[in-house]
């Protein structure tokens, strides 16, 4: 499942969790604190995962081996 759809599927899952946190947060004087904390945690974890996933899916620098002899290197 390592393709571009993983980002979209993850976004849908996190959006569903944010909606659930909004609806099912405990009622009371700290309801806004609960909602804000849960939604911020979900979004922060998703962003960290998405950035790491995309960095591995499309690396900026292609790794090269330095221990190969020159006659075996194909440019």
TrEMBL record:
<dbReference type="GO" id="GO:0012505">
    <property type="term" value="C:endomembrane system"/>
</dbReference>
<keyword id="KW-0375">Hydrogen ion transport</keyword>
<dbReference type="Pfam" id="PF05493">
    <property type="entry name" value="ATP_synt_H"/>
</dbReference>
<keyword id="KW-0812">Transmembrane</keyword>
<keyword id="KW-0813">Transport</keyword>
<dbReference type="GO" id="GO:0000220">
    <property type="term" value="C:vacuolar proton-transporting V-type ATPase, V0 domain"/>
</dbReference>
<keyword id="KW-1133">Transmembrane helix</keyword>
<keyword id="KW-0472">Membrane</keyword>
<comment type="similarity">
    <text>Belongs to the V-ATPase e1/e2 subunit family.</text>
</comment>
<dbReference type="GO" id="GO:0046961">
    <property type="term" value="F:proton-transporting ATPase activity, rotational mechanism"/>
</dbReference>
<dbReference type="GO" id="GO:0007035">
    <property type="term" value="P:vacuolar acidification"/>
</dbReference>
<protein>
    <submittedName>
        <fullName>ATPase, V0 complex, subunit E1/e2</fullName>
    </submittedName>
</protein>
<keyword id="KW-0406">Ion transport</keyword>
<feature type="transmembrane region" description="Helical">
    <location>
        <begin position="37"/>
        <end position="61"/>
    </location>
</feature>
<dbReference type="InterPro" id="IPR008389">
    <property type="entry name" value="ATPase_V0-cplx_e1/e2_su"/>
</dbReference>
<feature type="transmembrane region" description="Helical">
    <location>
        <begin position="7"/>
        <end position="25"/>
    </location>
</feature>
